[in-house]
C-alpha cells in the first residue's frame, strides 16, 4: 500500500517516522548543522522505536508527536535548567528568581554567566546573549 508522506514525515527503511516540527522562533536559534543533527537524531530514534515496539500498538497510538487526551508526547526543554551564556551586547537588567527575594543583575558585554534559560531566553532571541 503506497501512501503520500506529509511534509513532516521521513521514510527510513519501512517505518514512517513522524518528526516534531520546531516552532519557527526555536528553529531560528539553531545553526544549520544543529537542525540537521536534530532531524537525523529524531529520525533514527523514531525508526528504532517503530522497529522495537510501536508497530505492535494500534495505528492511532503509533505517533510520537501525538497530543491527544491532553497529554503531549512531545518533550519540551526545562526552562529552569542552568545554561552557560556569553553577553554580546550591554543589555538592560534581568531579574533572577531563586530561594530568596528576586535579584536584579545587569548583563555587560563580554561577561560569561551561568543562568536559568528562562531568565535569558528573550536576550538570546534578540541576539544580545549567546549560548556557549
Walk me through what this model shows.
The structure is a single chain. Helices cover 27% and strands 23% of the residues. It has 132 residues and is α+β, with helices and mostly antiparallel strands. The chain has 2 domains: 9-70, no CATH class; 82-131, Ribosomal Protein L9, domain 1. The strands form 3 sheets. Strands 6-3-7 form a 3-stranded antiparallel sheet, covered by helices on one side. A two-stranded antiparallel sheet has the order 1-2. A two-stranded antiparallel sheet has the order 4-5. It is elongated and about 55 Å long. It starts with 8 loop residues before the first strand and ends with a strand. The model is unreliable at 1-18 (pLDDT under 50).
The main sheet comes to: 3 strands, antiparallel
Mean pLDDT: 78
Instruction: Give the tally of structural domains.
Output: 2
The low-confidence runs, each spanning 5 or more residues with pLDDT under 50, are: 1-18
Shape: elongated
* Tally of helical segments: 3
Order of helices and strands: EEHHEEEEHE
How would you write the strand order of the largest sheet? Answer: 6-3-7
Helix share, percent = 25-40%
Strand content: 15-25%
- Strands, total number: 7
Structural class by SSE content: alpha+beta
